[in-house]
């Protein structure tokens, strides 16, 4: 089946959108703080998670918990804890493999942008067996010297691949990611599963509740952005 819409390229965030890493990130944060005898609740951490640089997330957790642990000591412990968890628990989001397979069949270009390093992004996609869907279409903050929620990386990826903003669609799960898409002027959808339905959503970024809902978005007229829930 060919692609009948004007969307030629779909740009995905990685963690929390393609791979189910957000709870692992939050569990690693909980584990890291526990080493410093600071008890945190996993669900509270998940509820307040907004994406972005991990040092910023750790600082926000410190503010909420009223602690002042040296970030230079906390960050490497967090990264160690996350590495241990991801080795055995990191998986694609439910439905992602089917979605990407169908999009490829429609000859839609697929791309990933991330605030993570290129090495980490490649490792995540390799571990979850998603690399072949994207090839070299991987872009990180280091490529432009700026990170989400600034729109630079999103605009750069579209330009590099040769697509106009109107030919692209962006999917992200975090508040910062949605801000990135809106600032870039690229049609943006926010992925939220039922568990994370508490998050604030911009009127400019309708919600999709499952990854496969993206197909109905592509098939719908682009004169409006329906809220899919």
UniProtKB/TrEMBL annotation:
Q: Which UniProt keywords apply?
A: Hydrolase, Magnesium, Metal-binding
The protein's superkingdom reads Bacteria
Q: Which cofactor does it need?
A: Mg(2+)
Keyword Magnesium listed: yes
Would the keyword Endoplasmic reticulum turn up in this protein's UniProt record? Answer: no
Q: One Pfam family of this protein, by short name?
A: Hydrolase
Return one GO MF term: hydrolase activity
Q: Which family does it belong to?
A: Belongs to the HAD-like hydrolase superfamily. CbbY/CbbZ/Gph/YieH family.
Q: Which PANTHER family match?
A: 6-PHOSPHOGLUCONATE PHOSPHATASE
Its protein name is 6-phosphogluconate phosphatase
Identify the species of origin: Photobacterium damsela subsp. piscicida
